[in-house]
Amino acid sequence: MRLFWELTKRAFQRQLTYRAAMLAGLITNIFFGILRAAVLVALYGARREVVGMSVQDAVTYTALSQATIAYLSIFGWYDLMNSVNSGEVASDLLKPLNYLHFWLAQDLGRALVAFCLRGVTVMLFYALFFDLTVPQGVGQWAALTVALILSWFLSFGWRFLVNLAAFWTPNARGIGRLAFGLAWVLSGFFLPLRFFPGWFIMLCNFTPFPSMVNTIIEIYLGLLTGSALWQALAVQLLWAIALLVASQVVLRAGVRHLVVQGG
Fold first, then answer.
1. What is the mean pLDDT of residues 245-249?
2. How far apart are CA 49 and CA 53, in angstroms?
3. Spatial distance between the Cα atoms of 234 and 253, rounded to a whole number of angstroms
4. Number of independent structural domains in the chain
5. Residue 159 is assigned to a structural domain of this protein
6. Assigned domain for 262 exists
7. Which residue range is the domain that position 118 belongs to?
8. 49 secondary structure, DSSP code
9. Mean model confidence pLDDT for the chain
10. Is 243 helix (H, G, I), strand (E, B) or coil?
11. Which residues, including other chains, have CB under 8 Å from residue 180's CB and lie 6 or more apart?
């Protein structure tokens, strides 16, 4: 456990060294966030509410979805894939730490920096110019905290699983782009899932993706309460466990298949 937290600490410190990249990413998130907010406000027109979401909720949605981009690595994560292609995976597998836990620790350090420096900053910037919806009560904040933690585990499990494709092909980027692109749409990142037809929402709910983004947003906006809230958190937990277990199973198969420099 000490090694896990040491790796997390090192990853956290490493992310802090990329100040220019962090600032560029933050500016990009804010710019496109405001653009998305303007589009949604225009789509609402004279309507005050659509499927239970007010204009204020819609603007808050754009802030939240932009704030989670870096935290959840929504646009893709290829670090593990790159290590397989470069051969670094050989030394990583020899480390005195489970390979999945090794990457989990590093991603935790990355996610913490992204959450603090990009996620929170995006929300604060929005709050300066827009009237945002804010969670009411300790219970809602507590549920949001749990949802954020579970969404990270779920996101990591999905990204780790996708990256394991590199154990079978020398160029798995195409698989990654398809997999991550699918998550953008089905998670509710591009548009709130409530805006889609019922059959599409049902299709999305058969996948883990709504639990990555949509659950966070609906808890924050107060759209999930009572038993629906507990059910959403339970679904998040189940998907996170399922993806992490699947990652371990696929990893074992991948290691048996792995060939590094002909060895």
1. 95
2. 5
3. 29
4. 1
5. yes
6. no
7. 2-256
8. E
9. 90
10. helix
11. 74, 75, 76, 77, 159, 162
The residue ranges of DSSP E strands in the chain, in sequence order, are 49-50, 53-54
Residue appearing with tokens 């819609």: 58
According to the model, what pLDDT value does residue 17 have? 86
Q: What is d(CA 55, CA 38) in angstroms, rounded to the nearest whole number?
A: 11
Q: 41: buried, middle or exposed (CB in 10 Å: 19+, 13-18, 0-12)?
A: middle
- Give pLDDT, residue 259: 64
Give tens-digit pLDDT for 168-192: 888 888 999 999 999 999 999 988 9
Give SS3 for 74.
coil
Residue 189 lies in a domain: yes
Amino acid at 240: A
Q: Side chain identity at 161, as an amino acid letter?
A: L
125-152 residue pLDDT tens: 999 888 898 998 899 999 999 999 999 9
- In a domain, residue 263? The reply is no
d(CA 105, CA 92): 13
In this predicted structure, the answer to whether residue 261 has a pLDDT above a threshold of 70 is no
Rounded CA-CA distance 259/120 in Å is: 42
The burial class, CB within 10 Å (0-12 / 13-18 / 19+), for 175 is middle
Q: How far apart are CA 197 and CA 98, in angstroms?
A: 43
Q: How far apart are CA 214 and CA 77, in angstroms?
A: 20
Instruction: For residue range 3-59, list pLDDT tens digits in order.
Output: 888 889 888 888 888 888 888 888 888 888 888 888 888 888 877 888 888 889 999
